[in-house]
């Protein structure tokens, strides 16, 4: 079922489960392990998925001119987006539930290699200065407001010479909701000194237990860091990794009630493209069952920082890094590249 989402209206109650576990799995990267559990309940959940899955009204650009995969390339690339309603300038802003417009504040490319033995999650800094096809040079997060999802996908495909197979949007509120469902999460802060957020939470280097309010503040804060959004990206990666680690435990995956609780918590914050059918997602999840302990995160390297002609703070591209990433995706060696970062 495809429809345009209006977030000014309250959500309607739906029959049965909000969405199947298999939806949550692919996008959240809570992904891999949760999908394995979902296979047990696939027959009962697949119809709920088809009935209740929310999809973007328009996802992909026209096919002409898009990158084409080699015949033997069975890799899958999923673009993950999150958005702040006003462009994401700080933790005082409200997170929009799905980036149908505005600027995409968090951007990750999830790469699933052909062998399905690992998953790489590549964060792209929102302030990266790029060519948005048809619109000139802008920060990469402006592509969404300039031309919607098709323009965002077009920008990513042009930047890395890669075919985007699926797209999904999830806001950080969905992830922090999982923190409540999990009873808190232990996050390993990689920042080398304490920092205090605008909400008054202080975080120390190393592992610390966080409730949902603390976690949301942790993943949104950037004012304390000399490199700003780059450290925020690292914090988001650390948080998502912590959620994965605490979600895909044997205790959770063997407990149908627990799985349903996590799905119901996360699914209202998720919208996918219309090609992610229950069969497609379930097949991917089954094939990824051995990759749950091999999920690698890294951030696209940047060049110098400066101001654009119109006064925006930007990161220029590291051209060599962009070429290396494109080559690694094409050669199925992105796992080696991620390990070297």
Automatic annotation (TrEMBL):
Pfam families cross-referenced by the UniProt entry = LytR_cpsA_psr (PF03816)
Is the keyword Mitochondrion in the record? Answer: no
Q: Which domain of life does the UniProt lineage start with? A: Bacteria
Listed transmembrane segments: 20-42
In this chain, the stretch annotated as Disordered covers 81-104
Q: Does the keyword ATP-binding apply?
A: no
Q: Which residues form a coiled coil?
A: none
Keyword vocabulary terms for this entry: Membrane, Transmembrane, Transmembrane helix
Residue span(s) of domain Cell envelope-related transcriptional attenuator: 103-247
InterPro entries (alphabetical): LytR/CpsA/Psr_CW_biosynth, LytR_CpsA_psr
Q: Which family does it belong to?
A: Belongs to the LytR/CpsA/Psr (LCP) family.
Entries under NCBIfam families matching the protein: lytR_cpsA_psr
The name this protein goes by in its record: LytR family transcriptional attenuator
Organism expressing this protein natively: Nesterenkonia aurantiaca
